[in-house]
Inverse folding.
């Protein structure tokens, strides 16, 4: 005799066996809505993600709100080890009874026929083949069935819709920590004393809900600050999950270790080797760094695909193309295995070699139409470049490579708004002893360059003098040319125009002799043009910048072009043509902002402020001055402390104050100071397309007074700073 026992709810749902929620469900409102929508449109949806990311909780919450006339039933497969028992586990979850000799699969097909229910299959990743076969057959033969699968990898059967689940964002992770902490430690609440520590703790835990909850559980003994300080040993720290939790969810190590157990030997090997990367990495880097000694290069792609499927890796789109990444806890687990294998040093060297090659290629390709791609590539690879620099500057015998790498990234430090970080690495490099002169000399002139742009004259002079002396001693014409060039740049921003002209002309001659042509050489021409402009020789300055413009257009170079346009705008305004000056500055500003070049951006804003005043809008000019004032501390000494460079600013301020009055001028400046960089640039570029209000006539052209430091023309000169 057979009968169908319609199961009675054992807990949470009116009709089914979903357990009741015992604590608050935090965040995930957007994911909940998307998963609900996915279930409405597909009969099989699989929620994937790494261990502890909250897949089961989200699936249960979604299932509880699903309209299923014959109920919502959950089959937990984590404890099942035999693939032949998968069907039995589903039968048991559904509460079916049968006294015949029929196999469970036949029973399921018979009892589910004509019924409309949702089956949640959770924790199937170690039984994926058996589970996929069962679910596939049930879906094909019982049209009223829907399945919500939950696991660390897809089932990979027809009709499956994947729903990859990412960790919590920062806000939700902090909210989860606070809620769970308050449950463990009565009276706990976020306040000014612990909020920043909790936020950083959640960030370093990648927003993984399990890790956040385990950390909150430690508050009975440790403060958030103490938790944060002990996070280097996260696997010993993050233990103590509830007794009713699945064994693999009682510690962070076991949660991740469960994924590790499910991997093949090749997958485990690649996982450990990928731990040498910091942040994101691309396939080519993984193939170079990780192949060999048990893992063929042509197998890396397939193994990466397997790790993606198991949520060990995540794929992300970036401006530099697709990248892969590991969460920090997953990487730390792999790093433990790599250290145990004894292969860590070899992998770190291969990692260093790859990023040395990348930096060398990027430096060469900077002088090309691919500048924007190079900037995006270095930005995407910055965490790995930092790791390579750290390795070189801490390992014996590697110092010269660290100096070379820090120097080769000059275009990024200078051209993409990273002066402070560049100086950090360069100073660390030159402080170390090294027997490779060329690497050290390159680091010295780049350090001098960075210090100049930051307004640190003493440090710049020290580095450039050492570079010049050593270049003469070792007979290095390239280093000598760069040292002389940057010394000329230093004279320029120090208001010694005659010396600047002499040094810059000499450096350009040296570049010509050795056949050097790149963005640095073009910037030398722009800087010479600015020195000539400050001395009143505008025709010669224009000729130099027009030549730079032609070379830039021939080679697709845009970064140096922006500074040439700046000098041409300076001349146009002095010649009484503010409209042409604005057009040149708009293009200059657009290019500088594209590269995140803070110096080029702030210089263009400063000169645009004067143009705006001349065109009759002193209020907007004051706003632009305020926006520039906010940016200068991120660059260095405002206007290099130069009297020449400061004249356009002073002239703009004087005229705006006269027309607006001190109080209104101050209000406008403060309004500008509240603008972020993006907002300020957007505002400046948007207004560029409008006809400025002709409230005040533009001043008549004045002849330059070459005896005074500023001339009566807008000076500025980011372009001249190289």
């Amino acid at each position: 005799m057979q009968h169908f026992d319609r199961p009675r709810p054992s807990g949470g749902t009116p009709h089914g066996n979903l357990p009741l929620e015992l604590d608050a469900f935090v965040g995930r409102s957007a994911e909940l809505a998307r998963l609900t929508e996915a279930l409405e449109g597909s009969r099989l949806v699989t929620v994937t993600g790494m261990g502890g990311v909250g897949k089961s909780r989200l699936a249960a919450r979604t299932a509880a709100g699903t309209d299923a006339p014959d109920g919502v039933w959950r089959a937990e497969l984590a404890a099942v080890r035999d693939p032949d028992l998968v069907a039995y586990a589903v039968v048991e979850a559904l509460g079916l009874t049968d006294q015949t000799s029929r196999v469970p699969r036949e029973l399921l097909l018979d009892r589910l026929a004509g019924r409309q229910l949702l089956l949640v299959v959770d924790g199937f990743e170690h039984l994926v083949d058996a589970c996929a076969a069962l679910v596939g057959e049930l879906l094909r033969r019982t049209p009223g069935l829907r399945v919500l699968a939950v696991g660390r990898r897809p089932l990979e059967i027809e009709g499956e819709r994947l729903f990859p689940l990412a960790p919590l964002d920062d806000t939700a992770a902090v909210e989860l920590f606070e809620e769970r902490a308050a449950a463990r430690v009565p009276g706990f609440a976020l306040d000014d004393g612990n909020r920043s520590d909790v936020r950083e703790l959640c960030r370093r835990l990648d927003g993984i809900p399990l890790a956040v909850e385990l950390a909150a559980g430690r508050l009975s003994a440790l403060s958030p600050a103490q938790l944060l300080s002990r996070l280097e040993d996260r696997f010993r720290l993050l233990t103590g999950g509830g007794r009713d939790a699945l064994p693999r969810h009682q510690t962070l190590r076991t949660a991740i270790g469960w994924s590790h157990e499910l991997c093949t030997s090749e997958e485990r090997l690649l996982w450990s080797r990928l731990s040498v990367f910091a942040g994101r990495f691309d396939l080519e880097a993984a193939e170079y760094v990780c192949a060999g000694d048990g893992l063929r290069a042509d197998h890396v792609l397939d193994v990466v695909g397997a790790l993606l499927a198991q949520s060990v890796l995540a794929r992300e789109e970036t401006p530099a193309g697709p990248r892969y990444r590991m969460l920090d806890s997953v990487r730390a687990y792999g790093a433990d295995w790599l250290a145990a294998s004894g292969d860590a040093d070899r992998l770190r060297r291969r990692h260093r070699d790859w990023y040395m090659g990348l930096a060398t290629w990027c430096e060469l390709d900077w002088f090309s139409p691919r500048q924007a791609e190079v900037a995006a590539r270095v930005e995407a690879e910055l965490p790995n470049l930092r790791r390579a620099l750290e390795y070189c500057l801490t390992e014996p015998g590697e110092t010269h490579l660290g100096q070379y790498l820090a120097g080769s990234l000059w275009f990024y430090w200078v051209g993409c708004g990273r002066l402070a970080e560049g100086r950090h690495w360069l100073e660390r490099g030159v402080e170390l002893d090294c027997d490779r002169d060329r690497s050290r000399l390159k680091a010295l002139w780049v350090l001098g360059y960075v210090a100049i742009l930051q307004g640190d004259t003493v440090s710049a002079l020290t580095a450039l003098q050492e570079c010049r002396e050593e270049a003469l001693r070792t007979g290095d014409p390239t280093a000598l040319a760069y040292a002389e060039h940057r010394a000329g740049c230093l004279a320029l921003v120090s208001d010694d125009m005659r010396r600047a002209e002499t040094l810059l002309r000499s450096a350009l001659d040296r570049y010509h002799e050795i056949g050097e042509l790149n963005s640095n050489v073009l910037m030398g021409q722009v800087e010479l043009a600015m020195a000539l402009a400050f001395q009143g020789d505008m025709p010669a300055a224009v000729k130099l910048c027009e030549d730079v413009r032609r070379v830039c257009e021939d080679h697709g170079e845009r970064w140096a072009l922006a500074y040439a346009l700046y000098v041409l705008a300076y001349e146009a305004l002095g010649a009484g043509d503010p409209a042409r000056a604005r057009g040149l500055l708009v293009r200059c500003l657009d290019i500088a902002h594209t590269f995140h070049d803070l110096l080029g951006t702030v210089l263009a804003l400063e000169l645009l402020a004067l143009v705006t005043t001349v065109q009759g809008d002193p209020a907007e000019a004051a706003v632009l001055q305020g926006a520039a004032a906010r940016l200068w501390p991120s660059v260095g000494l405002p206007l290099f402390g130069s009297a020449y460079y400061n004249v356009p600013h002073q002239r703009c301020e004087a005229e705006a104050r006269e027309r607006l009055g001190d109080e209104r001028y101050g209000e406008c400046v403060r309004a500008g100071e509240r603008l972020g960089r993006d907002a300020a640039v957007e505002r400046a570029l948007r207004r560029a397309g409008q006809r400025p209000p002709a409230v005040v006539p533009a001043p008549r052209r004045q002849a330059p007074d070459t005896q005074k430091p500023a001339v009566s023309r807008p000076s500025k000169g980011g372009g001249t700073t190289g």
Q: What stands out?
A: Residues 29-164 form a domain with the Rossmann fold fold (CATH 3.40.50.300). The two ends are 91 Å apart (CA to CA).
